[in-house]
């Protein structure tokens, strides 16, 4: 205990009296020093209290022994002296018991001073960002310096001792959400397997698309969740064209919607056997009279299509009908209650049993060739998305990327906790969870997975925030999949996606100066939130 106490005192002395390395310290260094000092002060206080408590207990036992001896020998004056010393000891202990309260008040005052310091630093950041924003070349230099700084920081961190592993303390201090995502994903996958099996049996001989096995996508199937409660388990159900038809993808070149968007054109194909060409086996393409008669009945074209194009909203309503009809024959209906939730471009429902519940979101789409890229029913960033527009989705590719990282990462990797922490920090501000996820994916693809443990928490958070800062200054944040030549080989991409111009997730900042100013303000807010979460744990 004494050796550990002396070690902590030496560490605290080094923090309070750091060696001068420059005329001033940058904000990241100040944050690291402040966090280390805060955590070590708490540990020092706890150890001192334990030491005082053990000393007082030994003293009480010793004085109790003297009192017993005095009573045995019937020495009245010795007994009086012992009682006087006990009263003095009780007085000293009562004074010391009030010291933690005073320490708590001092800590609150120090935290209040820290808030003032952060406000002053934010004012300095505002002036700095304005100056840098006027010079695009300087922004590019900052990005390059940031990358070099990460390498230097990693080299310094390798020399830290185990006693300085702040991540071990933060692991118990930060309030991590308690979620059994793995169990929820298993239940969702099992339920969807039953749904798809029944769908396939019912639609096998029909003129409707046949749903294929669902693919788990989104944050829950990647191993994390941006929300502490109400986790949504998203799945993508690929659709194959019905017999006698084929799906042809046509890219939307109007430029009215952000990203890459497509139309799914439904085209008839000849299904006549080559060896038989009589009237009894002619397909709809060669027998228009039968085709006209079938068009007067409910079928795929007049139920799910608008003109010659597959309609997202009509397909969603069709899925709702299938789920409602099939649910009553599933074994789950005996113990679970199904509640359909409203949505125009997907099929969303919640199943509950007592206090247990989980929400499932079924997206549907068409695969591009044999790749991991699909066009799906997910909405776009636009306020209005036409019902015949199917945005290109990269959810399957991103899910496979996180699984690829999980296979390479050590068991104690914190890469998902970093993402969880950033996702919690951006709640209620202008940066979306997907933007922070994109930054983390870029860093995961650059920094070795061995350097994503708990001891690197400050470095990785600094990397993420610095990446965001440089992207804001450049008004450009590249999409992780589109146009990225460094995507792992386990992810299959079409050639046109690999060679496409990278999508800019910050395109709106270049088009709207007011939005860029607001984003800079929200960036400072994000830094402050992260600091509070690290110092206070929430």
Automatic annotation (TrEMBL):
GO CC terms: membrane
Leader sequence segment: 1-22
Keywords: Signal
Positions with biased composition (Low complexity): 141-153
Keyword Zinc-finger: no
Gene3D superfamilies: 1.10.1410.40
Location of region: Disordered: 98-160
Protein name: Inositol 1,4,5-trisphosphate receptor-interacting protein-like 1
Classification lineage: Eukaryota, Metazoa, Chordata, Craniata, Vertebrata
Encoding gene, per UniProt annotation: LOC108505595
């Amino acid at each position: 205990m004494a050796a550990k106490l002396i070690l902590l005192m030496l560490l605290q002395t080094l923090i309070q009296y750091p060696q001068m390395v420059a005329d001033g310290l940058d904000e990241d260094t100040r944050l690291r020093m402040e966090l280390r000092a805060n955590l070590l002060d708490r540990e020092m206080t706890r150890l001192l209290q334990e030491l005082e408590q053990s000393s007082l207990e030994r003293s009480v036992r010793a004085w109790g022994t003297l009192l017993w001896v005095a009573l045995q020998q019937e020495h009245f004056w010795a007994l009086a002296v012992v009682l006087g010393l006990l009263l003095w000891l009780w007085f000293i202990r009562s004074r010391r018991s009030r010291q933690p309260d005073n320490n708590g008040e001092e800590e609150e005052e120090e935290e209040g001073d820290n808030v003032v310091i952060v406000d002053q630093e934010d004012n300095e950041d505002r002036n700095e960002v304005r100056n840098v924003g006027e010079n695009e070349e300087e922004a590019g230099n900052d990005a390059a310096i940031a990358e070099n700084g990460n390498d230097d920081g990693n080299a310094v961190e390798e020399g830290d001792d185990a006693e300085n592993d702040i991540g071990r303390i933060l692991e118990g201090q930060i309030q991590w959400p308690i979620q059994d995502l793995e169990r929820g994903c298993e239940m969702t996958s099992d339920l969807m397997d039953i749904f798809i099996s029944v769908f396939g049996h019912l639609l096998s001989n029909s003129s409707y698309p046949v749903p294929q096995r669902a693919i788990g996508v989104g944050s829950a199937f990647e191993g994390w969740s941006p929300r502490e409660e109400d986790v949504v388990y998203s799945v993508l159900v690929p659709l194959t064209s019905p017999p006698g038809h084929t799906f042809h993808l046509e890219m939307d070149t109007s430029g009215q919607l952000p990203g890459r968007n497509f139309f799914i054109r439904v085209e008839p194909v000849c299904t006549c056997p080559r060896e038989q060409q009589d009237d009894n086996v002619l397909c709809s393409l060669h027998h228009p009279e039968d085709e006209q008669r079938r068009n007067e009945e409910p079928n795929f074209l007049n139920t799910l299509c608008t003109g010659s194009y597959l309609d997202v909203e009509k397909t969603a309503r069709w899925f709702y009908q299938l789920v409602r009809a099939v649910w009553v024959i599933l074994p789950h209906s005996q113990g679970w209650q199904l509640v359909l939730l409203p949505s125009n471009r997907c099929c969303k429902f919640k199943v509950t049993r007592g206090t247990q519940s989980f929400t499932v979101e079924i997206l549907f789409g068409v695969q591009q060739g044999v790749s991991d890229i699909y066009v799906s029913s997910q909405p776009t960033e636009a306020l209005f998305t036409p019902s015949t527009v199917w945005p290109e989705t990269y959810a399957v590719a991103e899910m496979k990327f996180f699984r690829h990282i999980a296979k390479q990462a050590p068991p104690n990797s914190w890469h998902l906790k970093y993402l969880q922490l950033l996702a919690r920090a951006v709640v209620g501000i202008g940066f979306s969870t997907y933007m922070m996820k994109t930054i983390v994916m870029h860093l995961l693809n650059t920094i070795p997975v061995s350097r994503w443990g708990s001891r690197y928490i400050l470095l990785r958070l600094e990397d993420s925030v610095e990446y965001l800062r440089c992207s804001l200054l450049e008004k450009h944040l590249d999409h992780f999949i589109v146009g990225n030549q460094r995507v792992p080989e386990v992810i299959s991409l079409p050639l046109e996606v690999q060679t496409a111009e990278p999508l800019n997730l910050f395109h709106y900042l270049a088009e709207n100066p007011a939005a860029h100013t607001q984003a800079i303000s929200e960036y400072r807010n994000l830094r402050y939130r992260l600091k509070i979460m690290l110092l206070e744990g929430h």
